[in-house]
Amino acid sequence: MGDHGFMLNNMLGEEDVVDETPGHFREGVRMSSMMAPTIIAEADGTVTALGTGGSNRIRTAILQVAVNLLAHRMDVEAAVLAPRLHVERCGTVSFEPDFSGEEEAALRTLAEEAKAWPERNLFFGGVHVARWHQKGGAHGAGDPRRQGVAIVV
Question: Where are the domains of the chain?
Fold first, then answer.
């Protein structure tokens, strides 16, 4: 925080770390962070690194891409491009297009309010992925929700 009384970050809008109680922030104490760069080491030697910005949507974005990679065995680009959803504590489920009609109907039953986004949006994070395996080489995916690009050299 230094001697100037302000923190050099943009975390003041994050619901998970901001308490609405007056005087909640103590001078000289750094705020906790939701940042969650993630590394997945698989038994076959595959190593995947992924991360995103996105406030309280960081967890859901990273989890969804990791599930796509590990459980659905998608390649990195497909895992990043797949539609995402996010459920807020306030009772709202938000979701991107391209879920099946049956999946969308199920999502609408999850919360009091459902928000169907008309297109993919950076609201759902921008997960960027780098993956490497000794036999398969390097692969990457940049999330177009945040103008991401991956180039393997």
Answer: 1-33, 34-83+124-153, 85-119
